């Protein structure tokens, strides 16, 4: 079983994904919010395989139809063929059509569920119809159907299990009612039970591994997007976000503002209190910064070293000085002693800038303007805010 090493996890910040790993998912269920995300991921990542299963089903049942016509007596095959062509094949076609409509994708699991149930019950009906017509049909096809539903159609395990139990029930009923040879009946039911055990076993671990892959993927993404020390977004994410927000602002004709925040005399702080305490101070400043960017398109990031950036989407221009000042004041209010500074406590200088994106302004310009403002704040004595634009 593919398991995630909990030792490795100790380096990964607290998140719903890490929570899920710690809680375990042997019952093949995450908590409600994560489960919803997983189902979307599951449907999307299995889309090609689900479609291939649909085509495979269509081809196989067409083949069985030809064999029925070629080998069965004329009073039997019209029954089996009408079930194959009238019930099973259309179910595959419907599921396939749904899989090609992006807006219908949420219904795909239900369509696959329905198609699988119809395929299984249809196959049982074929066996029943043939036995009823006194024709000893080879019953092995039903074993294939069970494995197909567990392993190939990419249904969630619980659903595949439910469908297969219903099919099994129907099969046992048909065997009891129509199968006159007790030896054949016994073998057929035992084989069917065995096929279910094999399929359920394989299917369970298939889904367990898919869930593990989902969590690993999500945690890797988080790791790649965030700064390890402060938990804020890193510079790479900042650039990606700025690019996105810049385009959005251009479409919506809105402003984008940023604040560049630099800790004052931080080299001296490190020298006096040690690098470890320096890290503690950076985390404290990062928490303040994170608190000031809370709307969906806002973003707090660590720009590098002791520098941070906040992106604000569509702020009121007149509010920008206040927003930056809030950060400065909140850092000062931390009251972290810094004897090497003229202020006696840890402080930050902030350069803020606001721009309306257009064809001849890039976000690099916004960063540059904020950087100039920051330089001025430092020049004018630190622990203050300068706003441009
Ligand atoms: P100024 O007021 O002009 O900004 O002076 P400063 O000392 O803050 O600026 P400078 O750029 O000279 O020094 C930044 C210091 O930040 C130097 C570096 O050791 C420290 N630093 C950068 N990243 C980290 C970190 O992750 N942890 C710790 N503890 N210190 C860091
Ligand atoms: Mg600096
Ligand atoms: Mg500094």
Instruction: Give the overall shape.
Output: elongated
The radius of gyration computed from the alpha-carbon positions, rounded to a whole number of angstroms, is 32 Å
Coarse structural class: alpha+beta
Give, in order, the helices and strands: HHHHHHHHHHEHHEEHEHE
Number of H/I helices? 14
Stretches with pLDDT under 50, minimum 5 residues: none
DSSP strand tally: 5
Mean residue pLDDT: 94
Tally of discrete structural domains: 2
How would you sum up this structure, described in words?
By secondary structure, this protein is an alpha+beta fold. Helix content is 65%, strand content 8%. It folds into two domains: 6-223, no CATH class; 235-388, 2-Layer Sandwich (Alpha-Beta Plaits), CATH 3.30.70. The chain has helices at residues 6-9, 16-23, 32-45, 47-71, 77-99, 108-132, 141-152, 157-178, 182-225, 235-252, 266-273, 275-291, 320-334, 363-379, and strands spanning 256-263, 299-304, 307-313, 348-355, 385-388. Strands 2-3-1-4-5 form a five-stranded mixed β-sheet, with helices on both faces. Helix 14 links the parallel strand 4 (348-355) and strand 5. It binds 3'-deoxy-guanosine-5'-triphosphate and magnesium ion (MG) (2 copies). One magnesium ion binds next to loops.
């Amino acid at each position: 079983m593919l398991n995630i090493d909990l030792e490795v996890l100790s380096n990964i910040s607290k998140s719903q994904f890490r929570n899920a790993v710690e809680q375990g998912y042997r019952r093949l269920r995450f908590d409600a919010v994560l489960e919803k995300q997983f189902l979307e991921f599951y449907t999307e990542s299995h889309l090609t395989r689900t479609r291939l299963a649909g085509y495979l089903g269509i081809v196989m049942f067409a083949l069985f139809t030809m064999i029925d016509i070629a080998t069965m007596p004329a009073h039997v095959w019209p029954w089996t063929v009408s079930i194959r062509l009238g019930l099973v094949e259309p179910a595959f076609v419907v599921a396939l059509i749904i899989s090609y409509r992006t807006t219908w994708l949420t219904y795909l699991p239900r369509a696959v569920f329905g198609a699988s149930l119809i395929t299984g019950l249809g196959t049982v009906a074929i066996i029943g119809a043939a036995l009823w017509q006194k024709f000893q049909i080879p019953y092995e096809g039903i074993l294939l159907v069970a494995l197909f539903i567990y392993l190939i159609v990419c249904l969630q395990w619980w659903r595949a299990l439910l469908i297969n139990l219903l099919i099994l029930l129907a099969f046992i009923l048909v065997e009891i009612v129509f199968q006159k040879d007790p030896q054949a009946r016994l073998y057929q039911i035992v084989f069917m039970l065995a096929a279910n055990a094999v399929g359920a076993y394989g299917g369970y671990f298939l889904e367990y591994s898919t869930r593990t892959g989902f969590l690993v993927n999500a945690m890797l993404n988080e790791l790649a997007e965030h700064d390890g020390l402060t938990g804020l977004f890193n510079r790479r994410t900042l650039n990606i976000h700025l690019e996105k927000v810049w385009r959005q602002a251009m479409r919506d004709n809105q402003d984008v503002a940023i604040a560049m925040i630099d800790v004052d005399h931080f080299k001296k702080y490190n020298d006096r209190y040690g690098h470890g305490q320096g890290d503690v101070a950076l985390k404290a400043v990062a928490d303040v910064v994170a608190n000031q960017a809370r709307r969906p398109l806002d973003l707090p990031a660590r720009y590098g070293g002791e520098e941070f950036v906040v992106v604000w989407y569509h702020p009121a221009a007149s509010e920008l000085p206040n927003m930056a000042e809030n950060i400065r004041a909140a850092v000062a209010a931390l009251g972290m002693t810094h004897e090497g500074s003229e202020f006696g406590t840890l402080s930050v200088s902030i350069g803020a800038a606001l721009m309306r994106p257009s064809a001849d302004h890039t976000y690099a310009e916004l960063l540059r303007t904020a950087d100039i403002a920051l330089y001025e704040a430092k020049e004018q004595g630190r622990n203050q805010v300068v706003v441009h634009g």
